[in-house]
Amino acid sequence: MTDMMEPRRFRTLFISDVHLGSKAAKADFLLDFLRYHEADTIYLVGDIVDGWRLKRSWYWPQVCNDVVQKLLRKARKGTRVVYIPGNHDEFLRAFPGMHFGGIEVVERIIHDGADGKKYLILHGDEFDVVVRNARLLAYLGDWAYDTAIRINIVLAAVRRHLGMPYWSFSAWAKLQVKHAVNFIGEFQRVVAEEARKSGADGVICGHIHHAVIEDMDGIRYINTGDWVESCTAIVEHEDGTFELITWRALTSNVPALTSIELLEEGELAPQAA
Fold first, then answer.
1. Burial per residue of 94-120, b for 16 or more beta-carbon CB atoms within 10 angstroms, e otherwise
2. How far, in whole angstroms, is CA 223 from its chain's centroid?
3. Other CB atoms within 10 A of residue 175 CB
4. R_g of the chain computed on alpha carbons
5. Helices 183-197 and 169-180, interaxial angle, to 10°?
6. What parts of the sequence cross the membrane (predicted)?
7. 233 C-beta neighbours (distance < 10 Å), count
8. From first to last of its 273 residues, what are the pLDDT tens digits of the chain?
9. Can you give the chain as a three-state secondary structure string?
């Protein structure tokens, strides 16, 4: 690993589910990521700010301001920044078409890929039956996820002390529950079908914190993941191929020294298409 990293430039960058305002948000990782990644267009695919948690208790450290300022600075320097609100930052849905410091707010949008294909971009919560039809249940689920994250922090410290590799209790618990009801597969199918109805070749969304690039009956389904656990983003190269990447800090005291790891069937190898 060298002391300096050259910034990487892409045609498009897609980020979602940062949850700024939540103690679980890895805002420092995202800030570091944004320092070393440039793009002509950045899509913020919902839940960038966690309004639900901020309503319960205010938590907004300086690093949250730094992330916002970094995005605003990119917009001032010519990057097109488009914000598609999610359910946690739904307060922004009252301002479709508005610009805030150069950041454009839209409910959903069609992205024209470099290869001529069209991609529907939306957060995806409108297809989550729990969020759409039972808001109280959704809030309870959000609380349960917070609790799992806190358990995760304790377990991670213990495993680190014992020299054991990182293992995410919260991710495991989430997947066990959602697999039990086949939630992820059904969500992907419904969102892909919405792209088909919109005349798009693919869909790019967030919401379920499950990063993946895959084809579903002729529709390219892309989920950006999150910046709570996986710290993943989607990038589009100049030739129209998409890549799913994750950003991990190598040291806690030197946040700029980080590495890119391409996800595999879980962790390490490229998923480009």
1. eeeeeeeebbbbbebeebebeeeeebb
2. 8
3. 15
4. 18
5. 70
6. none
7. 28
8. 334 578 899 999 999 999 999 988 999 999 999 999 999 999 999 999 999 999 999 999 999 999 999 999 999 999 999 999 999 999 999 999 999 999 999 999 999 999 999 999 999 999 876 445 544 444 545 656 666 666 777 777 777 778 777 656 556 565 555 443 456 778 888 999 999 999 999 999 999 888 999 999 999 999 999 999 889 999 999 999 999 998 874 333 333 323 333 333 233 223 334
9. CCCCCCCEEEEEEEECCCCECCCCCCHHHHHHHHHCEEEEEEEECCCCECHHHHHHCCCCCHHHHHHHHHHHHHHHCCCEEEECCCCCCHHHHHCCCCEECCEEECCCEEEECCCCCEEEECCCHHHCHHHHHCHHHHHHHHHHHHHHHHHHHHHHHHHHHCCCCCCCHHHHHHHHHHHHCCHHHHHHHHHHHHHHHCCCCEEEECCCCCCEEEEECCEEEEECCCCCCCCEEEEECCCCCEEEEEEEECCCCCCCCEEEEECCCCCCCCCEC
Q: Which amino acid is at 115?
A: D
Place of tokens 């060298």: 2
Tracing tokens 């989430």 back to the chain, one arrives at 174
Tokens, residue 42: 């950045």
